[in-house]
Design brief:
416 residues, alpha/beta, Aspartate Aminotransferase, domain 2, three-stranded antiparallel beta sheet, binds pyridoxal-5'-phosphate
């Protein structure tokens, strides 16, 4: 008799996966060049950093790319380059990486959270419009789980309310909306090269733009605001940070970037195979297939469950998948940021003390974002992209494992 592994049966998923990230080929060669060059930090002229920036911009289709040391730093520097000041509000979905809220506060602006859409798990337009104020300055779409945000909607809201679009593309490097790569829609777009991202180099970040004056500001902000490289004067006019990446990071990122398109094809083929296999499984729903999402760039594979149809909780379902041996990512659906202690309590007030309507901010942080909460606790399941990159038989085994758990889900009705 077949039994769930969570209830003492044999695990169904036994494939050994090649875990991401891994060296694709030329990383050692690129690293050696940096080691021998003696320029280990960002230098001007020919360097791994400059080469990486040029090839990154080319891949995205933007005029400029600026490499930095993290995705969070990319956001801080972007806000400073856009002249965002204390009291200015930056709006983005509440169910994303808390790095975004941290970085906005570290740049002395105010994060304002927005609920998500029950279908796409991304920005919910009515919620977004309900939180707009005269201080709303930046609308930050976050392209989540390797998928583009609905950029038609974002551009429409931004145009109507005179907001600057700043794209967080950290979790979707290579994804496209209507054939255009994410990162290209906003005044600025930024990426992370840290863990769980499409393109990884240990740590790191990149900002892209078509605007030469913004690019010069970023080059100025990166070394603590020193104006020498960007403006040819030894002076400083902005409060800035050390945003410089190591050349070693850029060397690894360069090698990874050159192999990325091929890797991405493999992930996409694996994902469409898995989606087809899951298409008929009762209780499982694939993410909506918006025709405008012309390419996905999986950082993890997300699908949804219907607890009523399954007959057990999402938590029980996910625990059962884990027990079967399927690598899944527990926090992958992202809890609403305002449920974390810093924003749930009063601690945030220590860091946001320059906002003209602090009660409005307090209301936003105390708000119950129902869709985001529901997605996080009851609907979203994310499994590792390593399954997508593997052979077809691994996706078949993953689908069989999910089917097994679905068929026996009612036995988990009382599971805590
Ligand atoms: C959506 C999102 N934005 C921003 C960041 C921050 O990137 P980093 O960790 O490189 O600072 C991350 C990841 O950590 C992220 O997932």
């Amino acid at each position: 008799m077949i039994r769930l592994a969570l209830l003492g049966g044999e695990p169904a998923f036994a494939a050994t996966l090649d875990t991401y990230p891994h060296a694709f080929g030329n990383e050692l060669e690129e690293l050696r060049k940096v080691l021998e060059s003696r320029f280990w930090n960002v230098s001007y002229g020919a360097s791994a950093t400059q080469q990486f920036e040029e090839e990154f911009a080319q891949y995205i289709g933007s005029r400029y790319a600026v490499a930095v040391n993290t995705g969070g730093m990319a956001l801080q520097m972007s806000l400073r380059a856009l002249a965002i000041e204390p009291g200015d509000e930056v709006l983005f979905q509440v169910n994303t990486c808390s790095a975004d809220a941290n970085a906005v506060m570290n740049a002395q602006a105010t994060p304002i959270f927005v609920d998500s859409d029950p279908e796409t798990f991304m920005l919910n337009r009515p919620s977004l419009e309900s939180w707009l104020t005269p201080r709303s300055k930046v609308l930050m779409p976050v392209h989540m789980w390797g998928r583009s945000e609905n950029m038609d909607m974002i551009e429409d809201v931004a145009r109507t309310h005179n907001l600057i679009i700043l794209e967080d593309a950290c979790l979707a490097f290579g994804a496209e909306w209507q054939g255009v790569k994410v990162g290209r829609f906003g005044k600025l777009g930024f990426f992370s090269l840290g863990c769980l991202k499409s393109l990884q180099a240990g740590e790191g970040g990149v900002i892209v733009t078509d605007d030469k004056s913004l690019w010069k500001e970023l080059i100025m902000l990166r070394p603590w605001g020193d104006m020498s490289a960007a403006y040819g004067v030894r002076d400083q006019r902005e409060l800035a940070w050390n945003g410089r990446p190591s050349q070693f990071v850029c060397a690894v990122a360069l090698a990874q970037l050159r192999s990325f398109p091929e890797h991405l094809e493999r992930l996409n083929q694996g994902a469409s195979r898995l989606r087809k296999l899951l298409g008929d499984v009762p209780g499982i729903m694939n993410m909506p297939a918006d025709e405008s999402i012309t390419k996905e760039a999986f950082t993890q594979f997300m699908f949804k469950v219907d607890e009523d149809l399954l007959g057990c909780s999402r938590d029980a379902f996910a625990a059962a998948l884990g027990a079967e041996g399927l690598p899944f990512i527990w926090h992958g659906a992202f809890e609403p940021i305002n449920t974390l202690t810093l924003w749930r309590g009063d601690r945030w007030r220590t860091w946001i003390n320059y906002h003209p309507d602090i009660d409005f901010v307090a209301r936003n942080y105390a708000h119950v974002f129902e869709n985001a909460l529901h997605n996080f606790h009851h609907t979203g399941v994310t499994i590792s992209r390593d399954i997508l990159a593997a052979e077809p038989k691994v996706q078949e085994q993953a689908a069989e494992t999910i089917l097994k758990v679905c068929e026996h889900a009612r036995e988990l009705r009382d599971w805590q």
